[in-house]
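Quick one:
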Amino acid sequence: MRALVQRVIRGSVTIDGSIYSQIGKGIVILLGVKNGDTEEDAKYLANKCANLRIFDDENKRMNLSVKDVNGEALVVSQFTLYGDTRHGNRPDFTQASKPEEAEILYNKFVEYLKKAMGEEKVKTGVFKAMMIVEIINDGPVTLLVESKEK
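Output:
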């Protein structure tokens, strides 16, 4: 599993012209699921994202997690994180998990993230929907986090 984590001032998901979900200060997580990923990957990655120390402390050092700053998280499914662009100009998505399998692990990731941060602190997009995602990056701080190797 792969998560592109961005520290944000705010973020939102708009579907069909209406805001579906939005957060204030926190993190936006673009989440990709790869063939062979398991629930253990979802659990590991959710806990890693919730505890990443990417927010400034009183000394302006990145030393606090989203939980420490009472922030929120917005999780958006992003199969294109597993697009392979090494050959030609058209990405190859064969590493990305099939939608039926990916949705199960996406939901597990969200479930574990809610356990780590609190139910009310985690918002989502809609799996497989065409979404407009607004990300107001803070810093900017953007990290690619992957589940542990098998």
